[in-house]
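> call design_seq(struct)
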């Protein structure tokens, strides 16, 4: 009975509740989009809704004993990484144009090519195990891939988050600035989530993937998901006309 209760509580905190908050954030973003006039705000709201809805499904894609399903999960996350970074890559040039001095943000015009290359490597590491079964869990190749995934993802999104926050600080568009600050916070929270997940999964001895995702050690990961979902919601809410009216008043 205690094991069943533990499983129910963990699933509620790490999957059901985060998914509900992501769904609400996505619903809010897409609803707000209908009330917006500016193309910049509408595009950002659309992307925010897409990211939030994608994450609402991603929180359930944690573990499977079926290799086909595991490969499908890896492909799903690979596509999601591309969508998320494409969103960031489209936002930063807009932010730069809203800077009165048109200053470069972390030399993004050149840095973006390096980050896109890193993203390609990251996607390859996610897809290769399905193509080459020798790169399976427990092998040295998989361990190298998993470690590389963490390092590349942390650098990739850490730099992107820093670029977004830098651009938000320089922007003269107060609405865009507020929304981007929450996007930057969301990215930094995601980097923190990668760190918590990797440290816990690495430092906890003799813990299988199933035991990790469906036991109390996974709770911090679920709480991080909730914070990320809240940041996405606040970013979308910052674009709402009613928010701007309240600020002006």
């Amino acid at each position: 009975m205690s094991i069943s209760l533990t499983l129910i509580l963990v699933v509620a905190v790490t999957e059901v509740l985060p998914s509900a908050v992501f769904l609400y954030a996505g619903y809010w973003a897409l609803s707000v989009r209908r009330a917006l006039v500016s193309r910049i705000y509408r595009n950002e709201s659309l992307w925010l809704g897409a990211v939030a809805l994608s994450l609402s499904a991603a929180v359930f894609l944690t573990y499977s004993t079926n290799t086909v399903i595991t490969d499908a999960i890896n492909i799903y996350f690979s596509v999601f990484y591309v969508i998320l970074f494409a969103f960031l890559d489209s936002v930063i040039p807009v932010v730069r144009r809203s800077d009165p001095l048109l200053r470069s943000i972390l030399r993004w015009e050149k840095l973006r090519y390096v980050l896109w290359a890193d993203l390609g490597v990251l996607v390859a590491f996610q897809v290769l195990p399905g193509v080459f079964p020798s790169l399976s869990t427990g092998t040295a190749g998989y361990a190298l891939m998993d470690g590389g995934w963490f390092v590349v993802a942390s650098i990739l999104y850490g730099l992107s988050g820093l670029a977004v926050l830098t651009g938000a600080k320089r922007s003269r568009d107060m609405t865009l600035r507020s929304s981007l600050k929450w996007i930057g916070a969301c990215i930094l929270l995601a980097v923190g989530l990668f760190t918590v997940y990797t440290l816990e999964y690495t430092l906890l001895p003799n813990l299988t993937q199933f035991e990790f995702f469906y036991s109390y050690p996974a709770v911090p990961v679920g709480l991080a998901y909730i914070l990320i979902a809240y940041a996405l919601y606040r970013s979308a809410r910052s674009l709402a006309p009613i928010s701007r009216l309240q600020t002006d008043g």
